[in-house]
């Protein structure tokens, strides 16, 4: 894992990541137009109120009122560029507001934009500059209706209020972006875990199928070798050996079809390549083992001859029952588990494992669901399907169907 692959690990991104809207877009959205229009009207309203106060003062020359009107209008119109150059516009309005009180509304909007769209350092610099020049405006252009101290205090409070509001908005946006990024990472990690579980399930199936296929080919080689060294064997014995060779070759081809496309990649530390493979005939031993562990398990196996079930299908049935019993032992201790197996040649094999809700409260064991993902992958690769989920009584059920050629 590198920082290039995960940009959120970069120190600058951790300190203050760039948020959507920090950089000016070439085309404004409908929301951008609405916000910009509202900001313009707010600044124009404050400017017009200030201009009315200046015009009401009889000592103010008419030319000053005209200049104030033009400069205030220009300051409000400049706000349409606040998305592209927020810091530069705010700095220019800070200087302009020292001699032009009509630009105060545009200055407040510009300071709010800087606080929302820029990190703390430029906000602190621009804010400090605005606070430093706040006393100059009432000194150069005093308000006849208020004192110098009162005008200065009001100006400082307004600047601090606007900057605090803007930083609060930015902090909330950062939180939303962080939560969205965290949710995306969680989804990506869940998808990777599911993909890994499927890959591991395929590897397990490939190893098992490799062992079974090797066993079949070994039998085929042994009987073919016997025919080679006993060409004078009686016809019945030759026919019997030929039949074994034919059956072994047919079953080997079936196993080969299942293993094609599955990558065999043994994990380090595993040396159980020669372990005996479970089949449907060993399902009774699995049930007995679960009962010895204290589980209440009832088995309804309606297949008269379990040995006649193809080895790959029987092994998949065994693994499904094994994983379902393990899940029932973890998530529904004390509940009676029912295992049912039905089917026949041509109609497939159906295995169903169900358990009711636990009768007594217990400490739930957290589960990742990887086992069920592996079972679904195993059943799909075998040409079947698997469904699982909670029942109406609060219990849980696993049902799978696997093909059985006639």
From TrEMBL:
<keyword id="KW-0547">Nucleotide-binding</keyword>
<dbReference type="Pfam" id="PF07730">
    <property type="entry name" value="HisKA_3"/>
</dbReference>
<feature type="transmembrane region" description="Helical">
    <location>
        <begin position="148"/>
        <end position="169"/>
    </location>
</feature>
<dbReference type="Pfam" id="PF23539">
    <property type="entry name" value="DUF7134"/>
</dbReference>
<dbReference type="InterPro" id="IPR055558">
    <property type="entry name" value="DUF7134"/>
</dbReference>
<dbReference type="InterPro" id="IPR036890">
    <property type="entry name" value="HATPase_C_sf"/>
</dbReference>
<feature type="domain" description="Histidine kinase/HSP90-like ATPase">
    <location>
        <begin position="315"/>
        <end position="404"/>
    </location>
</feature>
<keyword id="KW-1133">Transmembrane helix</keyword>
<dbReference type="InterPro" id="IPR050482">
    <property type="entry name" value="Sensor_HK_TwoCompSys"/>
</dbReference>
<keyword id="KW-0472">Membrane</keyword>
<dbReference type="InterPro" id="IPR003594">
    <property type="entry name" value="HATPase_dom"/>
</dbReference>
<feature type="transmembrane region" description="Helical">
    <location>
        <begin position="63"/>
        <end position="81"/>
    </location>
</feature>
<keyword id="KW-0808">Transferase</keyword>
<feature type="domain" description="Signal transduction histidine kinase subgroup 3 dimerisation and phosphoacceptor">
    <location>
        <begin position="202"/>
        <end position="267"/>
    </location>
</feature>
<keyword id="KW-0597">Phosphoprotein</keyword>
<feature type="domain" description="DUF7134">
    <location>
        <begin position="31"/>
        <end position="173"/>
    </location>
</feature>
<keyword id="KW-0902">Two-component regulatory system</keyword>
<dbReference type="Pfam" id="PF02518">
    <property type="entry name" value="HATPase_c"/>
</dbReference>
<protein>
    <recommendedName>
        <fullName>histidine kinase</fullName>
        <ecNumber>2.7.13.3</ecNumber>
    </recommendedName>
</protein>
<feature type="transmembrane region" description="Helical">
    <location>
        <begin position="93"/>
        <end position="116"/>
    </location>
</feature>
<keyword id="KW-0812">Transmembrane</keyword>
<keyword id="KW-0067">ATP-binding</keyword>
<keyword id="KW-0418">Kinase</keyword>
<dbReference type="GO" id="GO:0016301">
    <property type="term" value="F:kinase activity"/>
</dbReference>
<feature type="transmembrane region" description="Helical">
    <location>
        <begin position="33"/>
        <end position="51"/>
    </location>
</feature>
<dbReference type="InterPro" id="IPR011712">
    <property type="entry name" value="Sig_transdc_His_kin_sub3_dim/P"/>
</dbReference>
